[in-house]
Amino acid sequence: MVMALGILLVLAVAAAVVYPFVRKGQAPWMEAAEAEALRELMEQKNALYSAIRQIDFDREMGNIAEDDYRRLRSRYVRRAAVVLRDIEGWQAEMEKELEREVEALLRQRPAKKSQGKPVSKARGGHGS
After folding, report:
1. Lowest CB count within 10 Å: 11, 53, 82, 128, which one?
2. CB contact set of 87 (below 8 Å; sequence gap of 6+)
């Protein structure tokens, strides 16, 4: 149980990193359909978290039977784990895409030429 909560926490942090890009509109490197799909995943995550908080509150208030609470919470947590894994997959794909774009930009950049004297590999810069 602790391991599952740890995984959920890591995935939630990953989702928090991605969310600002999709919340305010399309991230520049994403297609509109991809941005919309990720936005829907974030909305599902938020809805599931809200449902979990609500049934936790209902349990504390004595408004839900223990068996119903366990069944519903388990269902919501499983669904949240799936959504968070999907979000993590999107994040990994976005990171790969960004890395490819950065590498392409770096390859296009002209190499800097050494100015003046060659730099010695010895400590202190002296050629002994």
Report:
1. 128
2. 11, 14, 15, 18, 38, 41, 42, 45
